[in-house]
Design a protein that fits this description.
This is PYRD2 protein. InterPro entries: FAD/NAD-bd_sf (IPR036188). Belongs to the carotenoid/retinoid oxidoreductase family. By secondary structure, the chain is of the alpha+beta class. The protein has two domains: 196 residues, no CATH class; 119 residues, FAD/NAD(P)-binding domain, CATH 3.50.50.60. 33% of the residues lie in helices and 15% in strands. The chain contains eleven helices and twelve strands. The strands form four sheets. The protein has a five-stranded antiparallel β-sheet with strand order 8-9-10-7-11. Strand 1 and strand 2 form a beta hairpin. The radius of gyration is 22 Å and the shape is globular.
Length: 356
Amino acid sequence: LLGQILDQWFESEPLKATLATDAVIGAMASPHTPGSGYVLLHHVMGEMEGRRGAWGYVAGGMGALSQAIARAAAARGAHIFTEKAVCHVLLGRHRQAQGVVLQDGTEVRSKLVLSNASPQITFLELAPQEELPKDFVQRIQQVDTRSPVTKINVAVDRLPSFLAAPNTRDGQPLPHHQCSIHLNCEGTHLLHHAFSEATHGHPSSRPMIELCIPSALDPGLAPQGCHVVSLFTQYTPSVLAGGQPWDEQARNAYADTVFDCIEAYAPGFKASVIGRDILTPPDLERIFGLPGGNIFHGAMSLDQLYFTRPAPSYSGYQSPVPGLYLCGSGAHPGGGVMGAAGRNAAQVALEDFKHL
């Protein structure tokens, strides 16, 4: 349990709770849930520019990362198509993957197919079901994809001024504006209570909030004097109590709760808001193809990691369909902006390609 680990090393409850947020981030779990310690480890492993456990902002926004990957691929001769939805994987005479069919009927032929879509989309929607073992299909159907995350993107006309560290007269970003700001994390009991509410189908009344202001480091993201604020919040259940829909009223009610919480730490925040974009778990699934809204394509729980991700006997990026590979977050080692699953899958696919 994460709580036991933190108790061994730290005395300060606010510090323990703040560290605990990385153990439950994106997970329908409490700091007291068995296995939560691994999720914390997952978020601090690796390094950035030589600094172990460090994270950073992508200049130009997260889309700039996709563009950088696209440019690198194009430089090697790749052809990139966007707004071209894939309908299903195409099979050859020997029942191996031989390309994909687009929704408009276009066939794109290839010797190998790599999918960074979720295992659910890849194997339950795109792959030919008759080619998949029943126990494999059952395993993919049973993957825990519950997500507690509602993402709120906010445009503001000035920097938030926090009671604990008020802004200076010139309104320039201070060091804390350039970091990840954790709210409602004064104690691990608050995180556990927020989780408990969601397990009963109710959005947290005092949600865990991770607030980032990327424009404080990258001014090009917003007009001069204005900023973009990214709110990663939880816990919000995918399915509300009583089967109530996540309609506009429910979305705005939850967002208002989040904004009220921020207002308590930074008076004037609500008055600074120019616009907001609210993405609940069903929205994240519909727009981005995240199963259940899960940012990791499936829970990072101990029963869904390593040799069982996404299924036993298929943790090596290959699938029951020869020539079809899984290279996204649903494969080992899981979610996070690190590219490990893609790199590993490419190496496996290249090795297989040599023997075609």
